[in-house]
Amino acid sequence: MTEEKLQSLQELSLKVREHIIAMSATGGCFIGASLSCVELMTYLYSEFLDLEPETLKDPNRNYLFLSKGHDVPAMYGTLAELGFIDKARLDNHLLTNDSIYWHPNRNIPGVEFHSGSLGHLPAVAAGIALDCKLKNQDNHIVVITGDGELNEGSVWETLLVANAYNLNNLTILVDRNQFQANIRTEELIPLESLDDKFAAFGCNVKRINGHDFNALEEVFTSLPYGKNVNVVIADTVRGKGLPSIEARADRWFCSFTKDEASQLLNELHGTAKALLESETLIVR
After folding, report:
1. Can the peptide bond before residue 73 be classed as cis, meaning omega within 30 degrees of 0?
2. Torsion sign across C-alpha atoms 131, 134, 137, 140
3. For every residue of 18-30, which 3-state class applies, written as one string?
4. Contact indicator for 34, 68 with CB cutoff of 8 Å
5. What is the C-alpha to C-alpha distance for residues 42 and 88, in angstroms, rounded to an integer?
6. β-pairing, 179-180 with 183-184?
7. Does the pLDDT of residue 38 top 90, yes or no?
8. How far apart are the C-alpha atoms of 115 and 102, rounded to whole Å?
């Protein structure tokens, strides 16, 4: 990856993080999980999907499904920065006159499918991948899942079927931020060795630093990895970019004040650490 492209992606990611922070002060959002997948989202929309606002209905387009729907502020921010939606529309977060809310909605240009209940979109993506194969199309289908989401049996059932049909035009991208809601995955239902689990289901697996654009470029430009489903495990940090909330179980969903959001923007830009007094939220 050229230095120019790398700098452009880093600048885009910074702007997307600014949007996420802003949404955390307008009723709150799942900020920790959203921040962990920023580089995944910005890389795919900028470099891999080959999508433009004018080609969103093109049957030959590549597809992205966000199965961990609570990350949608990262998607909103990316779509706004790349011109799919007006940036001013983000001010409608959680207002009843728009569809900018806590989970993806197809009323937002660029959102392929609704999500919220976890474990559903791998199967939807596999269906699209099979359809494209049957039509001899060259589309590639990517679905982003959470790591806690992998506790859903539907994910593994999908892999059994998808590999039975050799769907190597399907890639499962796991945002491995180590948390499931308010607890570490390894303290609830341990997932590791995750690579071996996917391989045992017949998948071709690669594991990378999910915040490293060069690593993302390498794994996505080398697709497919074989005749079966591709899996990329992206190791990430929940709350990435904001040290005051990074890797904190109690900062999953946050509803900050406007003053706290202003402090977090300063923290994002490295000028000062935020003093957060808003109540933490534990959900079980």
Report:
1. no
2. positive
3. HHHHHHCCCCCEC
4. no
5. 19
6. antiparallel
7. yes
8. 10
Q: What is the mean pLDDT of residues 132-140?
A: 96
Name residues whose C-beta falls within 8 Å of residue 44's C-beta, 6 or more positions apart in sequence.
64, 142, 173, 220
**Amino acid (one-letter) located at 142:** V
* One-letter amino acid of 243: P
Q: Quick one: the chain helix, strand, coil %, rounded to 5?
A: 40, 10, 45
Alpha carbon distance 235, 210 (integer Å) = 5
The tokens for 46 are 């900028």
Cα–Cα distance for residue pair 55/226, rounded to 1 Å: 29
pLDDT, tens only, 175-226: 999 999 889 999 999 999 999 999 999 999 999 999 999 999 999 999 999 9
Evaluate whether 111 touches 49 at the Cβ level (below 8 Å).
no
Quote the CA–CA distance of 39 and 236 in Å, as a whole number: 9
- Residue 176, helix vs strand vs coil: strand
Distance CA 252, CA 243 (A): 14
- Cis omega (within 30 of 0) for bond into 99: no
Q: How many secondary structure helices (H) and strands (E) does the chain include?
A: 10, 7
Task: Give the residues across from 176 on adjacent strands.
Answer: 235
Q: What angle do CA 59, 142, 63 make, to 5 degrees?
A: 20
Strand partners, 251: none
User: How is residue 215 written in tokens?
Assistant: 């690593």
Count CB neighbours of 67 within 10 A: 29
Structure tokens at 130: 């099979």
63-117 pLDDT per residue, tens: 999 999 999 999 999 999 999 999 999 999 999 999 999 999 999 999 999 988 8
Listed residue (14, 44, 20) closest to 232, CA to CA? 44
| Structure tokens belonging to residue 122 | 């791998």
